[in-house]
Amino acid sequence: MSTGGRLVDLVQHRIDEFLDARAPILAAISDDTAPMGAISRDFLRFGKRFRARFCYWGWQSVQGLDDAGYFFGDTSSRDVPAVVGVATALELFHAAALVHDDLIDASDTRRGAPSAHRRFEQEHRDRRFVGDAGRFGDSSAILLGDLLLVWSDELFAESLEQLADRDNARAARAEFNRMRTDVTAGQYLDIVAEASWPHVRDGAEVDTAINVITYKSAKYSIEAPLAIGASLGGASLAQMAALREFGLPLGIAFQLRDDLLGVYGDSSVTGKPAGDDLVEGKRTVLVAVARQALPASARRTVDELLGDPDLTEEQVRMLQETIRGAGAIDEVERMIAENVDRALDALDGAPLTADARGALTRLAESISVRTA
User: Fold this and answer.
1) Which pTM value belongs to this model?
2) Which superfamily does 1-45+80-162 belong to?
3) What are the C-alpha distances in Å from 260 to residues 4, 101, 231, 295, 330?
4) What is the pLDDT of residue 72?
């Protein structure tokens, strides 16, 4: 099994172990809390674990240890359990972000299954509660996301206690704290962009959309996990700079690929309906590029339809073709390739271990061509 596969298994084991420890706490409060534990497990059972992987390789890039010994029983570094715990905490944070993001976007599905707020809504109906089922679902999902945030912080703190170097622990905590502020501010920028787009000056839409994805996704998906992992290993300023120069453009490419998948992805692979971003009215870089290239009449049509929750399949296909015809797909593909090249250039000659540079190169390739 590859290092990535072993890491994913260890992270899943740590997730299960952590949730097992929290289950009695919820049960002692009330049997009614059972859905919170069950939905948490379901949300954390799947995923590509990109954030955990980047955290691990951020650490490995400055430590340079042969990890095979640890995974097969020889603890070559006593810090490995701390690193795995921190990587797992990032996955808990990601789950919290997904719960809140689906609620903000009014998404019905996540990974081919009902989103958290829809599951709570169904719980209301199944148990014949009084009041509005949708409001109950939304309120419960807010609380579940908050609980996952709390648990993420608990696990992060517990894991730092296992780290030998306290200065490294403090540096990792500072990176984690900054990440949480960045992504929360970025999420707010996203909803501002959806509400204020008519007031954005001509020609600034693409820059606005890139600023949103930088803080909402790029930093927290790749740059921050790398920086947190590197901090755990005591990275030098030069090592940290190289990882940031790699991580930020790759994070932008990661989200640009998500933008394409949100409009043109195969629903059987993405777990989301085709054209879901169009129904949700997301003001992505893809949409911004298309609007700049379209004539005024076509632009007005896009603006009228984008974000209409009652869009028909025919209207979704029409929007997809309009965006394609504007050359937006080709332009976003060019931007993805350009950002991946920038990321890989940052690795060339970087003061990082050879194994880590190889692993990060492979991760960059998998992120740029993925289908989900």
Assistant:
1) 0.93
2) Farnesyl Diphosphate Synthase (1.10.600.10)
3) 26, 18, 33, 22, 10
4) 36
